[in-house]
Amino acid sequence: MNTIAENIADFLKEYPPFNHLTFVELSIIATSIRVVNLEKHKILFQINDLLHDSFYVVASGVINLSVIADAEETLLNKCVEGDIFGLRPFFAKNNYMMTAKAREESIVYAIPIATFRPFVANNSDVLNFLLESFAVNTRNPKDKENLIGKLISDNVFYSDQQSEMQYFQTLSYNTSPLKTNSSAIVQEVAQLMTEALKNNIVVCDNNIPLGIVTDADMRSKIATGRFPATAPVAKIMSSPVITVLENVSLAEAQLLMLKYNVTHLCVTQDGTDKSIVKGIISEHDLILAQANNPGVLIKEIKRCQTSKELKQIRERLTDLIQTSISKNIPLSHVFNIASEINLAIIKRSVELSILDLGSPPARFAWLSIGSQGRKEQLLLTDQDSILIFEDVSADKYREVKDYFLKLGKRTTATLEKIGYELCPNGHMGSNMLWCKSLTDWTKQYDNWMNTPGENSNDLSSIFFDYEITFGEQKIEDAIGNVVFKNAKNNTLFFDFLGNDALRKNAPLTFFKKFNVEEEGINKDKFDIKTRALMPLIDGARLFALYFDIRGINNTFQRFKQLSITDPKHAEIYLNCAEAFLTLSKFRILEGLKNDNSGQFINLEELSKIDREKLKNALAPMRELEELIKGKFQLTQFS
Amino acid sequence: MLDWLKNINKEQPEFWKNYVSKFEKKSSRFVVLSTETSGLNSDKDVILSIGSFAVIDNSIVIADSFEAVLLQYKFLHDNGLSNEFLVESKMKKLGEPDAIKACIDFIGNSTLVGHHIDFDVEIINAALERLDCGRLKNEALDIDVMHRKLNDINDKQFSLDELCTAYNIPKSDRNSAAEDAYKTALLFLKLKSRLGIK
C-alpha cells in the first residue's frame, strides 16, 4: 500500500458509509481509487449517459446534481466534501438519470463498484446507507443537520409526483423530548414546559413512557379547576401514549394521529410503550415536513434558541425564494415575505442577546439600515444596523452604553453565524460610532444634513433607509422627525445627495455596450449593484426625502408613491419602478445560481433576449438622471 | 557526447533491453515522478526515495503507482549522515539497483511528468549509468514550464508550494516523494485541462 492511499483512507473514514468500515478495508478501497480533476462547469456524467464503472466521492469543490424536466434544469443537490453520488450503477442497470456538473474546480475520487460491492454485501450498515441515499431525495436543510453526511439521491421524483412521494419520506422530529416522572407536581412541570417553549412533556418511569401531558391537558384539567396546580402530574396525563417506531413515515404518522385523535406520537425503541422513549412527533413536525411556508418559518424563528437553528431557517428561506421565483410570484411580493422573515430573524437575534445579557437598562431601538431597511434583502448580503438608546443621566451613561455595545456585539455575532456577513464599513450597532443615545443621534443627523461634505466623510446614504427591528417605535419616530425637519428646503443637502446619486458610473458605454469590469476577479462581468441598482435606489431616496414621503422605504414603493405625489413625471417614476424589479430579478437569479450576493452578472451566461431585457431596463435611469439634474442645483459638490 | 561509444561493447541488462523495446509503441500513459535526493548534484548525490503515479484518461490511478525508499547505506555512511529515516519508513525498501530496475519497469514508455523534471531525469540517468544502462528515452513534461507557458511568464521559476497555492491544492504537513508526486499529479491534471493537452 502506498502513502497516498493511506491518506485517502484517512479522508474517507470521516464520512458515511465509509465510517462503518475498518481501516484495512478502507485501504483496499483507497488503493483502487482513481483521482479525477474536474474543471469548472465540467460535466462528469449526464442524463442518459451509460453507467460508469464507479461511484464518486467529492474530495474538494462542489458538484451540482441536476435533472432536466420540461426543458428546465432543476438543481437536486449540491455535493460538497465527503458527499457520495453517482450510486445508480449499484442498484440499477439503466442509464444515469441526472447530470453531475462541477460548480467550481473540483477533485473527486472514483471508487470502482467492483471493488466496493463485496463490502456492501458483507456490511449491512453500509448497504442501508447506500439504499437510503439512493431512495431518499432530501433537499430539506433540516435534515442536513441531523445527518453527518448528506444523503444524496440518485432517484428523481418529478414535481408532479412529489406530493405523493413526500408521504413516504421519513420525518424529522424532536429527539430529545422533555421528560418527567409521575410524581412531579403539575405547576413545576408547567414551568419546565414554559421554559423549554414546548407544548408537551412525556411522563416516564425509567425512560419507559407512561403518559403525556400537553397544553390541552393543562387547559382542560388545570385551568378549569378540576385539579389543583399542586396535583401530581400522573392525575392529568393522557395515558397510554400512542407509540410508533423510529422510522415512521409522514403518511403513517398522520393516519395514527387521526385514528387516535391525538396531537403527539411517542417514538420508542421497539414501537411499543414498553421500551425506551426516543422522541416525540408533534403535528407541528408534520406541517414542517410538508411545506416551507412563510408563516411556518416565522413561527419557527420565534422558537429558535440558537444561531444554528436560525441558520437552518435562513437556508429554508433561500429555498422558498427560489421556488417563489420559479413559480413567477411577483417580485414585490417576494420582497415583502423575505423581508418579514429577515426581520423576524434579526428580531430573534436581538432577543437572544437580551436573554443572555439580562434586561436592558434603558429603552432602545435597533434599526436595520441599508437593504434590509428598504426591505429589499433577498440574498444573504451584509448586515447594516444602528442602535439608538434613550437619553440617560450623565452618571449612568457609561454603563448604559457599555450594555448596548455588548448587545450590539452579541447580536451582530449571532447574525454573522446565521450567514449575514459583517458590514465591511462597520455600519453596525456593535460599532462605538453607531451605538449612541438619541441626543447624539439627533446631533449626528443634524450635522450630516446641515453641513454635508464637511468633516463627515462617513456619511453614507444608507443611513437614510432605516426600519425598526426591535424596541421603541417612538425612538424611530423621533429620528424620522429630525430627518424630515432638516430636509425641508435644505438645498445644500439635496445638492450633496444628488451628486452622490449621479456619481456612479454609467452602465452603458457610448456605443450602448455594457460597461463591464476591466480587471480583478470579476473581469468582464457587469456590476449590476453599483451601476444599475444603486442609482435607482439613490434616486428614489432623494426624491422621497424631497417630497416628504415618510414610512415608505422600499425603492419600488417609493417610485410608485412618487408617481402619485409628483404626477408631472409619473411616467418616469413608473418606468423606474418596473426597471428596478427587472434588475433585481437579474441580480437574484445570478445570486441564487452562484450562492453569493449576485452583484456581478456574467453576461456570457445570459441569453440574447435576456441581455436585451437587461439593456432596456437600464434606459429609465437616464431619464431619472435628467430629472435629478433639473430639480436640484448640483453645483456645490460637483 | 560519446557515451554510446563507451557502452557499445558492454552487454546491457535484460530489463533495459525490455525497456527500450517498449518504445516501439506510443503510450498515452503519463507517469508523474518525484524523487527525494541527498542533494542537487546529479554526479555526486544519490536518490533516497522515489514516488510516482500513473495518470490515465485525466485521472490519477492510485493502484498504478510505485514508491520505494532506496537503501543508500554506503552513501550515507561515507558522508556521515544518519540513516534513521530509512529504518523508520514504512515504505518498500530496495537497494539502488533493484529500485531503479523496478522504477524503469514501472515507467515504461510513458511520458514523464514532474516538477523540475530535468533534474529527476538527470539523477536517474546517473544511477542508470552505474548499472551499465543507457539514458532515459521518455519524453518529459515539467509542470513549472506548463504553468509559465499558461501564464506567459518567462523570468521566474515557481516552487511546488507556490504552484499548489496558485491552484488551490491543500498542502500537507508530511513531506515525502509520494506526497510531492501526488501534488504534482493534481497540478498536472489542472494544467493539462487548462492547456488543452490531450
Automatic annotation (TrEMBL), chain A:
Keyword S-adenosyl-L-methionine carried by entry: no
Which Pfam families does this entry report, sorted A to Z? CBS (PF00571), cNMP_binding (PF00027), DUF294 (PF03445), DUF294_C (PF10335)
Q: Which UniProt keywords apply?
A: CBS domain
Domain Cyclic nucleotide-binding stretches? 53-137
Which top-level group of life is the source organism from? Bacteria
**CBS domain: residues covered:** 237-300
Q: Which GO terms describe its molecular function?
A: [protein-PII] uridylyltransferase activity
InterPro entries for the chain: CBS_dom, CBS_dom_sf, cNMP-bd_dom, cNMP-bd_dom_sf, Diverse_CBS-Domain, DUF294_put_nucleoTrafse_sb-bd, GlnD_Uridyltrans_N, RmlC-like_jellyroll
Put simply, this protein is called CBS domain-containing protein
Species, as recorded: Flavobacterium sandaracinum
TrEMBL record, chain B:
Keyword presence, DNA repair:
no
Q: Does the keyword Repeat apply?
A: no
Query: Which UniProt keywords are present, listed alphabetically?
Result: Exonuclease, Hydrolase, Nuclease
Q: Which SMART domains match?
A: EXOIII
UniProt domain Exonuclease: residue ranges: 29-197
For this entry, list what GO says about its biological process: DNA metabolic process
Q: By its UniProt entry, which InterPro entries does this protein fall under?
A: Ribonucl_H, RNaseH-like_sf, RNaseH_sf
**GO molecular function term, any single one:** exonuclease activity
| This protein's name | 3'-5' exonuclease
Lineage, please?
A: Bacteria, Pseudomonadati, Bacteroidota, Flavobacteriia, Flavobacteriales
